[in-house]
Amino acid sequence: MPDTATLEAHLAISKVKARYCRMLDTKDWAGFGALFTEDFVLDYHERYVLKPGP
């Protein structure tokens, strides 16, 4: 059985993931940016962009 520290860490990660998804869904870019450290770099390279079909 997991110890208390493991369960607390899991809960904390789950909360951050929920905030991450909520900020993206609501397009709250300031809130989204606040989830990361100042030196965080995010690169959504062109190959990951969905493009319309023919």
Write up this protein.
It is elongated and about 50 Å long. It has one domain (4-48). With 54 residues, the protein is an all-alpha fold. 52% of the residues lie in helices and 0% in strands. It has helices at 4-25, 29-34.
Q: How many structural domains in the coordinates?
A: 1
Biggest β-sheet description: none
The portion of residues forming beta strands comes to: under 5%
Shape: elongated
What is the first-to-last residue Cα distance?
53 Å
Q: Can you give the helix content as a percent range? A: 40-55%
- Helix-strand category: mainly alpha
Number of helical elements: 2
SSE pattern, N- to C-terminal: HH
Radius of gyration: 16 Å
Number of strands: 0
Report low-confidence residues grouped into runs of 5 or more: none
Mean pLDDT: 86
Give short descriptive properties of this protein.
54 residues; mainly alpha; 0% strand
